[in-house]
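REQUEST FORM: STRUCTURE PREDICTION
Request ID: SP-0412
Submitted by: Lab K.M.
Chain count: 1
Length (residues): 139
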Amino acid sequence: MGILEMFGKKDVGDALVRKIPYSLKVRFNPYRLSLKDKAAVDLLIDLENLRDEEPLLTSVVIRVPKQLGLDSMGLNQLREIRLGYLKPGEIKNLRIEIYPTARTKPALYPILLTAFCHYRDYSHILNSEKKRIELRVDA
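STATUS: Completed
RESULT:
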C-alpha cells in the first residue's frame, strides 16, 4: 500500500504516461496548396480524449517550415492552441489555415502536430501525441 492510497488518493500519473491519451486525426482541405491561386489550405484536426475516467487539460502545437505561414503575412510558423479540459471521449475539431509565402516553392513540406496532456497548468507536461504530415505545394 502506497502513501497516497493510505489517504484515499490514487496515483493516475503512471496510467496516463503509459497509454496514449489522444486520438489525433489530420487532413487537408483541399489536398494541396496551389501557388497560382495564393489561397490558404485548411488543416482539419480531430482530437479525441481516449481516457474513460478523467478529463485532460489539453493543448495543441502546430509547427510549419519557414516556407509556409500560419497567418496571411507568413510571419508565424508556430501556433499553440489551448483547449482546456477535454471530457472523457470528447472530440474537439480544429481548423487551421496554412498560407504560402514569397519563399514557397513547389515541393513537399513537413508539418508537425503535437497534442499535449498537462497537469496542474499548461507549463507542466504529462504526456504527448505527435504526428508528422506532409503538405504538397504545386505551381
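NOTES: The chain has a mean pLDDT of 89.
Reviewed by: T.R.
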